[in-house]
Amino acid sequence: MNRKLLTILLISFVIAGGCAFLVYRIVGARIASSKPVLTTKVVAAASDIKLGTVLTATDLTTSDIQGTVPKGAILKPESVIGRGVISDIYQGEPILESRLAPQGSGGGLASTIPDGMRAMAVRVDQVVGVAGFVTPGLRVDVLASGVPPGAEGNQGTETKTILQNIQVLSAGTDIQKDAEGKPQQVQVVNLLVTPEQAQTLSLASTELRIQLVLRNPLDTKVAQVQGTAMGQMFGEQGGPAKVGVRRAPKAAPKVFTIQVFNGSTVSEEKFRSPEAKQ
Fold it and tell me: Using 50, 70 and 90 to split pLDDT, how confident is the model at 243?
């Protein structure tokens, strides 16, 4: 057979194979796109929902999720109405079981407290509250500063870490009365503590000045921290040494002795220097 004819046939087969492959890909893509996509309707938030809110029908909507449904997703709105929210939920976000309080526990801060724990409110200011950066879910350490029993003055002031790795439940403002009975806004932080920690925190907040220290939520180690006294900051247990003027001791006055000879009699006479007389 002519070599030229074989070359033409080979090129024709290659072109035909390429065209067939392209047609197969195009037809396959159209067939795949025409298949119905399986979706699941789940209950979602119709608007931003704050912690402690008791869900109503107006707070809920539905959202279609393709593929795998998130673990704990709610399928029926009737099963979440009347339950409290224990974590902020944002608009369009699916509502999960882990974000809701148990059925019948109601709403508010009490529904977010686990069994065996307590929520304790601590009055703070912007500095004590880490300049407003303490938000629900973060972890803090609690420091207490004051004068221990038996110490005197400011030199006896000590600071000690009394609680570590404490969860913040909520942070906000409250209306309280001052010493004159006038209402004023104060910063309040609710901390999640055990009953024993609640007693320690109550005593410290009543008798001492407390300070919140923000920590990394992933850092759960309890550090062995010793208390710090005011005197230790200056390198002495008794505080800084007093600075004064030390006078040099006076020099002893000079005394001159003169022997007087009177015949066979010898006597001595003592005289002070003129400077000693001044």
Answer: very low
Beta carbons within 10 angstroms of residue 214's beta carbon: 16
CA angle 210, 213, 198 (to 5 degrees): 50
> Are 140 and 215 within 8 A, CB to CB?
yes
DSSP string, 13-69: HHHHHHHHHHHHHHHHHHHHHHSPPPEEEEEEESS-B-TTPBP-GGGEEEEEEESSP
Structure token pair of residue 18? 């390429």
With contact defined as beta carbons under 8 Å apart, do 60 and 49 qualify? Answer: no
pLDDT of residue 10: 82
How far is 237 from 232, CA to CA, in rounded Å? Answer: 6
| pLDDT band per the 50, 70, 90 thresholds, residue 239 | very low
Greater model confidence, 241 or 150 = 150
Tell me the residue type at 33.
Answer: S
**Vertex 96: Cα angle to 220 and 45 (nearest 5):** 115
Contacts of 157 (CB under 8 A, 6+ apart): 145, 146, 147, 151, 229, 230
Average pLDDT score over residue span 63-71: 87
* The residue to which tokens 């801060």 are assigned: 109
Give the tens place of pLDDT for each residue, 106-126. Answer: 666 677 788 889 988 887 765
Which residues on adjacent β-strands are paired with residue 123? 188
Predicted confidence (pLDDT) at residue 185 exceeds the cutoff of 80:
no
- Distance, CA of 93 to CA of 114 (rounded, Å): 24
Contacts with 78 (C-beta within 8 Å, 6 or more apart), sequence order: none
